[in-house]
């Protein structure tokens, strides 16, 4: 059924997880915080993937009740700047409780680390600063039914500055844990 439905299903699963993680009776606090951080990362990644493919998207930050009305289910697309701000906020929130590196590859290979979170944040900010989303006058007439503009036609150098800082931070933490672009 395509990326749209699959990724929003993943976002829904993340929201359900976050709504219910505190109900787990025998999970220690450190493990719980790590799982929450990994789910926040995934939620950011899914939203980012959708923005890359579709531009302005509906941001889904919470689960809808099973008996939600049709009007509650119809979520308007958010402007791309709001989408990127939401994604970077999720990544910032996920960062604190992630490990620097995987110490036991047999048990934890594939889990999220701080360098991975910072690398994705750098990629998100570079995408946000790119001409497709930063000062795109070709899309300036794209609006929601309520008239909300979805693209900001004004170029912002500050977006490139933020992207450069995020790239440098990602590179520095990767070097700190011994990751390199080449060996």
Tags for this entry?
mainly alpha, 7 helices, 0% strand, single chain, 183 residues
First-residue to last-residue Cα separation: 41 Å
The rough form would be described as flat
Specify the number of helices. Answer: 7
The H-and-E topology, N to C, reads as: HHHHHHH
Q: Would you tell me the overall average pLDDT?
A: 93
Biggest β-sheet description: none
**Number of DSSP-assigned strands:** 0
Strand content: under 5%
Structural class: mainly alpha
CA-atom Rg in angstroms: 18 Å
Summarize the amount of helix as a percent range: 55-70%
Provide a concise account of the structure shown:
This protein is mostly helical and 183 residues long. The chain has helices spanning 2-20, 29-54, 70-73, 80-95, 105-108, 114-129, 157-176. Helix 1 (2-20) runs antiparallel to helix 2 (29-54) and helix 6 (114-129) runs antiparallel to helix 7 (157-176).
Structural summary, described in words:
- The protein is built from 7 helices and no strands.
- With 183 residues, it is an all-alpha fold.
- Helices cover 57% and strands 0% of the residues.
- It is flat, with a radius of gyration of 18 Å.
- The longest helix is centred in the first third of the chain and has 26 residues, at 29-54.
Give the topology, please.
Blueprint (H helix, E strand, L loop, with lengths): L1 H19 L8 H26 L15 H4 L6 H16 L9 H4 L5 H16 L27 H20 L7
Helix pairs in contact: 1-2, 2-4, 2-6, 4-6, 6-7
């Amino acid at each position: 059924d395509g990326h749209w439905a699959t990724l929003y299903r993943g976002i829904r699963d993340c929201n359900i997880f976050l709504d219910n993680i505190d109900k787990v009776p025998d999970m220690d606090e450190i493990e719980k915080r790590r799982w929450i951080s990994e789910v926040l990362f995934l939620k950011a990644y899914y939203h980012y993937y959708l923005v890359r493919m579709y531009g302005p998207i509906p941001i889904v930050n919470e689960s809808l009740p099973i008996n939600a009305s049709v009007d509650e289910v119809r979520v308007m697309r958010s402007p791309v700047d709001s989408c990127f701000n939401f994604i970077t906020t999720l990544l910032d929130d996920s960062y604190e409780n992630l490990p620097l590196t995987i110490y036991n590859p047999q048990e934890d290979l594939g889990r999220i680390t701080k360098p991975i979170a910072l690398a994705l944040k750098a990629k998100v900010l570079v995408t946000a600063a790119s001409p497709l989303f930063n000062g795109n006058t070709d899309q300036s007439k794209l609006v929601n039914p309520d008239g909300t503009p979805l693209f900001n036609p004004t170029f912002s150098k500050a977006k490139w500055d933020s992207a450069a800082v995020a790239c440098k931070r990602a590179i520095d933490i990767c070097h700190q844990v011994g990751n390199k672009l080449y060996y």
